[in-house]
Write a structure and sequence with these properties.
Helix 4 links the parallel strand 9 and strand 10. The chain is elongated. 27% of the residues lie in helices and 29% in strands. It folds into two domains: 92 residues, Beta Barrel (OB fold (Dihydrolipoamide Acetyltransferase, E2P)); 184 residues, Glutaredoxin (3-Layer(aba) Sandwich). It has six helices and 14 strands. By secondary structure, the protein is α+β, with helices and mostly antiparallel strands. Strands 3-2-1-4-5 form a five-stranded antiparallel β-sheet. A five-stranded mixed β-sheet has the order 10-9-8-13-14. Strands 6-7 form a two-stranded antiparallel sheet. The longest helix is centred in the N-terminal third of the chain and has 19 residues.
């Protein structure tokens, strides 16, 4: 009888524990990955009724769950929470696909990119050291990547004639937000580089006017241009595609992050992330986990 009562008690506890477990759908950006501990840290969007937007670590049950999970990746996953623990499962890497651009323009960009593929250099991958390059900024000062070693470098790509608020303006505005968040670290630990892929139009004087929209500090946020071949070479390092189209540009979107040794930590494609998430990623690189 006592055995039956004990079994009934165990079943009751198991049912209660199972009933307490809840699944939550989560979306965010990966900041760091630690395979040795089966964890990754992500800057997540708010989970209604459960958790505010924040950066925090998540555990996985199996190491294979971290396949393809790298800093800067946009992910969705299920957060399973019970009374004693939580873990992430069903992690999915969200590939960037623009739904704002005209579908015809998107297909044309893809076709032109494939045609040009044989002639262009291959984009760098995460962990590779970015080769040195030299361009000029909005004050006509030369800026060499090699001179920035020892600092974390964030790089994005725009052209000043872009009229769509969700594209170049949003990408540039992200750095405007970062300029405020990392005011104390800029210049000393962090440098922002915005490269134009329309150097024929975007002269230093044009970029200087553009930079004033965000009250950019020219000492710590450089808007870069240069000879067409040099700009094309830099863009190709990061997989940035662009082609003139009736006075405008069909282009891809990339925001890259380099560590203090000049190695690429992340190369975020698209605009499906917030300035706060990008800031959390930079903060993780500025203050790496021991």
């Amino acid at each position: 009888m006592r055995h039956l009562l004990g079994l009934a008690a165990l079943l009751f506890v198991a049912v209660q524990s199972s009933a307490a477990a809840k699944d939550y759908s989560v979306a965010g950006m990966v900041l760091t990955v630690d395979p040795s501990r089966n964890t990754f840290t992500a800057s997540i969007e708010a989970i209604p009724g459960f958790m505010a937007a924040m950066a925090m670590p998540f555990e996985v049950r199996q190491l294979k769950d971290l396949d393809g999970v790298v800093p800067g990746a946009a992910v969705t996953f299920t957060l399973v929470v019970d009374q004693k623990s939580s873990h992430a499962e069903r992690i999915r890497i969200v590939r960037y696909q623009s739904v704002e651009q005209d579908p015809l323009a998107v297909s044309r960009l893809k076709l032109l990119t494939n045609i040009a593929g044989a002639a262009r250099q291959k984009a760098l991958t995460i962990g590779q050291t970015v080769p040195d390059f030299r361009l000029v900024d909005q004050k006509r000062r030369p800026v060499a990547l090699s001179d920035l070693r020892g600092k974390v470098v964030a790089i994005n790509f725009v052209y000043t004639s872009c009229a769509l608020p969700g594209f170049c303006l949003r990408i540039a505005n992200n750095f405007g937000v970062l300029q405020k968040r990392f005011k104390a670290q800029l210049g000393r630990d962090l440098i922002l580089l915005t490269v134009t892929f329309d150097p024929v139009h975007d002269t230093p004087e044009v970029l200087d006017q553009y930079a004033r929209r965000w009250a950019a500090d020219a000492a710590t946020w450089h808007f870069l241009t240069g000879p067409v071949p040099d700009v094309q070479s830099v863009c190709q390092l990061f997989g940035v595609d662009f082609f003139p189209d009736e006075g405008l540009m069909n282009h891809s979107l990339h925001t890259a992050l380099l560590d203090r040794h000049g190695k690429m930590v992340a190369n975020i494609e698209g605009n499906r992330f917030t300035a706060d998430q990008l800031g959390d990623l930079i903060n993780a690189v500025l203050k790496p986990t021991p």
